[in-house]
Amino acid sequence: MAETERLICAATDLVEAGAGVRFEVHHHGRPEPAFAIRWQGRVHAFLNRCGHIPVELDFQPGEFFAHGGDYLICATHGALYDPATGQCMGGRCHGVGLIPLPVVERDGNLYVRTVREEDA
């Protein structure tokens, strides 16, 4: 399988525990919303889908962090997720975490790594 990288945004678009950047990926052959955030100096990306039911997390576009900036939160259910791993930390996610996506920060930009559809 051949991996490709697709530009998400400039690295400066993400600030520590600040607004995330929304983008789209193909997951299992169909387009899915996704997002990237910066947490503890590293960039993390996930499908934008709550572990409880498939609704997007952000209460406003790019707003994924709970008040205080320690957790990602589902605006619909209040489920809390670890920003580094996507692991469920409490609420209605009942142990089901977010689906992580491989990201790379290089040369001032952020890229998501994907498997080419024809190779999947």
Explain what the structure shows.
With 120 residues, the chain is an all-beta fold. The chain has a single domain, classed as Rieske Iron-sulfur Protein (3-layer Sandwich), CATH 2.102.10. The chain is built from no helices and ten strands. A four-stranded antiparallel beta sheet has the order 2-3-4-8, with no helix packed on it. A three-stranded antiparallel beta sheet has the order 1-10-9, with no helix packed on it. The radius of gyration is 14 Å and the shape is globular. The termini are close together. 26% of the residues are buried.
Oligomer: single chain
Count of all domains: 1
Compute the CA-based radius of gyration. Answer: 14 Å
Q: Describe the biggest sheet? A: 4 strands, antiparallel
* Beta-strand residue fraction: 35-45%
CATH topology: Rieske Iron-sulfur Protein
Shape: globular
The CATH class, by name, is Mainly Beta
The strand count comes to 10
Catalogue the unreliable spans.
none
List the helices and strands in order. EEEEEEEEEE
- N-to-C span: 7 Å
Mean of pLDDT:
92
CATH architectural group: 3-layer Sandwich
CATH-defined superfamily: Rieske [2Fe-2S] iron-sulphur domain
